[in-house]
Amino acid sequence: MFKKIALVIGALVALLLVVIALQPSTFAIERSAEIEAPPDIVFAHLDGARALDVWSPWVKMDPKVKLTHEGPESGVGSSESWEGPEMGAGRLTVTSVQPDQQVELKLEFTKPMAATHVARFTLTPTTDATRVTWRMEGTNNFVGKAASLVMNMDVMVGGTFERGLADLKTLAEADAKERAEQAAAAQAAEGASPPMTFEQMREAIDEAPEPHALPDEPATPPAED
Length: 225
What we know:
Blueprint: H1 2-21, E1 26-35, H2 39-43, H3 49-55, H4 57-61, E2 66-70, E3 79-84, E4 88-98, E5 102-111, E6 115-125, E7 130-139, H5 142-148, H6 153-189, H7 198-207
């Protein structure tokens, strides 16, 4: 009896191992958002570890996280390590930068489990905004494959991406508005008037005073014979 139970359990375990092994060995999670700001303003919030911390959804999720920054303030080599009860532990490093176009990061997780992934922010100008795409990709080890059977990582991580992009949108659009206001104030200080709209031109013409009539020219006396 016990031998049969052991055989059944062994068969189930073997089947589970096969199912886990058949799970995808790679993954990619991606979300995008339209931000009404020029690419250079959005880029300024992406090209360094400290800039990312301002709006990072994970930093907000773990108020007790300890952050340690290294390297330059921004650009390639900007890095930070983190450790917290919610975030676990790991390291982030900026590995590639294309100004106003793309930022690539290396993510090294050490707790609760070891993994190395790549994150990438891509900026695409549109007619009156910037489309920001946040993508993370990597490989699934055995533990990652097993976790994918009970957790939908695209929904979990993708939802966090969406919250982060919403906060990034708020920051960048506020910066864009401030820049526009400063430009308008500078223009006003220089005494330059903005171009008139068609309606303003028409109103100005309608309200213009009637031109004064020229005085009558004196009659020319008749010539004497």
